[in-house]
Amino acid sequence: MMTEDKKKKKKFLEKPQYPGGAKALREFVKSHLQYPQDAMEQRVEGVVTIAYQVNDDGFVENPTVVKGLCPSCNEEALRLVTMLRYDKARNRGVRLKVNCKLNINFHLAPAPAPTGGTISYTLQPSKKSEDKKKTPKSSGSGGYNYSISW
C-alpha cells in the first residue's frame, strides 16, 4: 500500500513560463522601464499592480490595472506588460490561459547633492562716516556682499 504523499504527482497541464524565470522577468522590467516625465517632475513613487492573462502561445492578453499610481505610470506599466512574451505551453491540444499579476516598482533615485559649486561671502565694513562727508545722502550703504558660483 502506497500513501498519497509517496505517489508521484503528475502534471497534466503545463503553464507558460517566462524564459529565464522570475529573475529574467525582473531584469526585463528594469531595463525597459521608462519613467514618465510628469511623474518624475512631481516625484511620484510607488507600485503599480497589473493583472493579465497569458495564452498557450505565450502572448499577454487583457492587461488591467489592479492598483494604480498615476495615469502616466499606469500607462507605462501596461506598455511593459504588453511587451512580455512567454514560452509556449505544450499541452497536447488543450488550450490554456493562465492568470498572472505583476508588481512594477516606480522609484526615483534620491536627489543628488549639488557638487562642484561654491558659495562664498565677504563682509565689508560700512563706510557711512566717509560717505556722509563726501555725499549729502547716499541710498546705498556698505554691508554684505555675496557671490554664488556653480
Q: How many strands appear in the DSSP assignment?
A: 5
Question: What would you call the structural class?
Answer: alpha+beta
Through-space gap between termini: 82 Å
Order of helices and strands: HHEEHEEHE
The rough form would be described as elongated
Please give the count of helices: 4
Percent of residues in helices: 10-25%
Largest sheet: 3 strands, antiparallel
Low-confidence regions: none
Strand order, main sheet: write it out.
Answer: 2-1-3
Mean pLDDT: 78
**Radius of gyration, CA atoms, in whole angstroms:** 32 Å
Strand content: 25-35%
Using brief descriptors, characterize the structure shown.
5 strands; 4 helices; 3-stranded antiparallel beta sheet; 150 residues; two-stranded antiparallel ribbon
Describe the model.
With 150 residues, the protein is of the alpha+beta class. 25% of the residues lie in helices and 27% in strands. It contains four helices and five strands. It has helices at 21-32, 37-41, 71-83, 128-134, and strands at 46-55, 60-67, 97-106, 118-123, 144-149. The strands form two sheets. It has a three-stranded antiparallel beta sheet, covered by helices on one side. Strand 1 and strand 2 (60-67) form a beta hairpin. The radius of gyration is 32 Å and the shape is elongated. The termini are far apart. The mean pLDDT is 78.
